[in-house]
């Protein structure tokens, strides 16, 4: 396994500087955030663009990989997490076009993983969303496969705010949909984040036993269920007001159990810390402190 970090919390730091800091502090790999180079407001934890994939040439891609290797880090994957099932057709077309540019960049860099979302229409039920996904996704899956790139869908429901309620913005969150994905689309995998199972009350060890062979990338993020928030809002709020992302080791996840399951499943890939803990935000020093704390919690399991 290789311990790494997702670069999204460093939107204003050049990628080379992130790489040098990561390598100097014991991280072996980076998931590089590749949102479009645009102006204006972005979703929290989104919008970071450490590679301008729209302008990346073959030569620049080769040089970038060499620069990162010289700094002492590899690339676990390129990350772009939009909503390709958005009900607005123009939005859907725009984000899918950028996703294909991220796939192209990965191919030029020799990176085999692009992490993303299946997406979802919050107003539609799961079966309605799946019917749309079955029409939308096969062409993009084939596009990636033809370029030697595996699309890794994260198991995140994307329901953190009222504009994502009630159905969320990503349907690839439960076993029922994951079986459909794996039965329907050749050459895709899972970017597994155990934190999203906690508040859904989905058994983490059982989930790893079933889907471990299809995990090609892992996000390390913890989560606390705020019992007061749950009491106030109830489960019909779908986590809003009571799912609290934390750095690994500060939440409700038993990481020894997670790693035991991953090793038994034969997983030997990247474990990338995804920083969404508000306790460690606000300054560069706080963000780095959060990553270092998570590193110290997880590194005994990384061999």
Q: Care to describe what's here?
A:
By secondary structure, this protein is α/β, with parallel strands linked by helices. The chain has a single domain (2-301), classed as Alpha-Beta Barrel (TIM Barrel). The chain has ten helices and ten strands. It has helices spanning 15-24, 58-71, 89-109, 126-146, 175-184, 195-198, 204-211, 227-233, 255-264, 284-298; strands spanning 2-6, 29-33, 74-79, 113-116, 150-154, 188-192, 215-220, 222-225, 243-246, 270-273. The strands form two sheets. An eight-stranded parallel β-barrel has the order 1-2-3-4-5-6-7-10, surrounded by five helices. A two-stranded antiparallel ribbon has the order 8-9. 46% of the residues are buried. The model has no long low-confidence stretch (mean pLDDT 97).
Total number of helices: 10
Write down the Rg. 18 Å
The largest pleated sheet is described as: 8 strands, parallel, barrel
What fraction, in percent, of the residue positions are helical?
A: 25-40%
Question: What's the CATH H-level superfamily name?
Answer: Divalent-metal-dependent TIM barrel enzymes
Strand order of the largest sheet: 1-2-3-4-5-6-7-10
- The tally of strands reads 10
Strand content: 15-25%
Quote the distance from N terminus to C terminus: 6 Å
CATH architecture verdict: Alpha-Beta Barrel
Give the total of domains: 1
User: Mind telling me the CATH class?
Assistant: Alpha Beta
Give the overall shape, derived from the CA principal axes.
globular
- Low-pLDDT runs of 5+ residues are none
Query: Which structural class do the helices and strands define?
Result: alpha/beta
Q: Indicate the CATH topology.
A: TIM Barrel
Give the rounded overall mean pLDDT: 97
Order of helices and strands: EHEHEHEHEHEHHEEHEHEH
